[in-house]
Predict the structure of Glycosyltransferase involved in cell wall biosynthesis.
Amino acid sequence: MGPPGGAGPLTVLVDAGPWLPVPPSGYGGIEAVLATLVPELRRLGVRVVLATVGASRLAVDERVTTFAEPRFADIAAPYNRVMGVAAAHVDRVLRELRGRDDVDLVHSHLEAWGLVAYADAGVPVLHTLHWDLAKHPELYGGLDGRGRVFVNGVSAAQLAGAPPALRRHALGHVHLATPLADDPPPAVARGDHLVVLARLTAAKGQDVAARLARRTGRRVVLAGPVGPHHDAAALEHALATDPRAREHPDVAWFLDEVAPLLDGDRVRWVGALHGAARDGLVASASAQLCPLQWEEPGGTGVVESLALGTPVVGYARGCLPELLDPGRTGLLGRPDDEDALAGLLAAGADRDLDRDACRDAARRRFTPAVMARGYLDLYREVLARAERPGRAPLVAVGPPPTAG
């Protein structure tokens, strides 16, 4: 696929930001999405220039780098200590764009900065929204992309809650995907444990999952990092040696709300898992719990769980209702109704869900190829709109045909 009216392949600068490598080591939501998307784009003929950190190992056509190592450990630092990180990264990308004329489109994944930094770089921009759109109300509420900047969501529910100014720049949504959907699941026996696969933070509801385990007699395994700490040993070391360790909001919440419920049996925290260890834990679970405390926009853990043949039980919040088929691939209760989820789990309703139906849904809807085709559709739309002088004002439109 080449740019309209041009020769050669389409060249896209994909901005992954300065926080984590691509692919990430363990946790890394956006970076994991890009590690899934970029190889498929390249298979479809797109040249990819990746703006990332030097530690990234994903095969691409070119890299643009400011920092040799990821800066995720700084992300929750006071603003006056961390504000220069994203600025330095963006400045490097802008210098790259000004020094060449072969980049057809910027596909940005850098929160806030990516929406405004490239508007005047002379290249059309697609900015993917991966996060809570209630944040940054002044930015989103007054956005003017000047006919060069467009956005997409990762679910319909996410865009439905966006401010009107942001929705006017929206070209639709593309659901997240996982390479696991293309492969057979691990050959593991199905157990009776429940799992929560996510960064341990208040929005993900691991405290609710722990209470549910205690109430119902079920076992739950919590897998994910606490702030920048990937396991209990790392967290204990930080607490013993760094007086500021408790200032991280996820660490403070974990110590207050989750750690008192850990007993090593009914409720366990195993740290951040990846690869075969992560897949085996999820594939052997009776269900993944998602008692979300926010309007989850994308649901990476949900699509990974379905690809591994494991249904999802959670609140009907955010993207979950459009990712799951209740009664077949998951069970959904009213938001914040802990009693209702406890009743489902105590009765073992998750054990009756069809694991083959979960796998089939993942193969149809959440493969890398489906996601990449959705983004190619959006790239075409961005290029067509950005090059058309005197075009009609932007209006919110429905999802691209391949979005799910």
Q: What stands out?
A: Residues 11-177+367-399 form a domain with the Rossmann fold fold (CATH 3.40.50.2000).
